[in-house]
Design brief:
Elements (H helix, E strand, L loop, with lengths): L2 H26 L5 H30 L6 H17 L4 H25 L5 H25 L1
Length: about 150
């Protein structure tokens, strides 16, 4: 399987896992900061679902439907969720850790696709804007934890 297809599949599965995690945290909010965190996690899962849809469409358009191979998606999704399960701290701290992982993935996906000579202007723009939106998520979660 092409290296870029695997990177695309990992990217898609990771965004799917992120949306599951933010949704779960949205449902589990409680306590004095319930409403603020409930709203924050809703904002984050909405944004991650938009990124997920755009990523799937962009990658399938560039690299083909193999990016959505169900076995590969299940493998990557399972791994991401199990790694999350092992993380410690509050839901906000766990979401923050996963958002930081998404930023690292944006960087490594960009570098891999660029090195393979398969970067398009649209994909460049998508990866940059995705990184930007997840930097905002990191900021919001950090502020929540202060």
């Amino acid at each position: 399987m092409d290296k870029c297809v695997k990177v695309a599949a990992l990217f898609i599965a990771s965004l799917q896992a992120l949306s599951i995690i933010h949704t779960r945290n949205h449902w589990l909010c409680k306590g004095d900061v319930f409403y603020a965190e409930h709203q924050l996690f809703e904002r984050l899962y909405d944004a991650s679902l938009e990124d997920l849809d755009s990523a799937a469409e962009k990658f399938v358009g560039l690299f083909g439907p193999e990016c959505l191979d169900l076995e590969l998606q299940a493998l990557f999704l399972n791994k991401a969720l199990l790694n999350y399960k092992k993380s410690e701290g509050s839901p906000a701290a766990q979401s923050l850790a996963f958002e930081r992982d998404i930023l690292k993935l944006c960087q490594s996906a960009y570098e891999c696709i660029e090195s393979e000579g398969k970067m398009s202007l649209g994909l460049d723009d998508f990866l940059m804007s995705t990184a930007s939106s997840h930097e905002t998520a990191v900021y919001l979660l950090q502020q929540t934890l202060k």
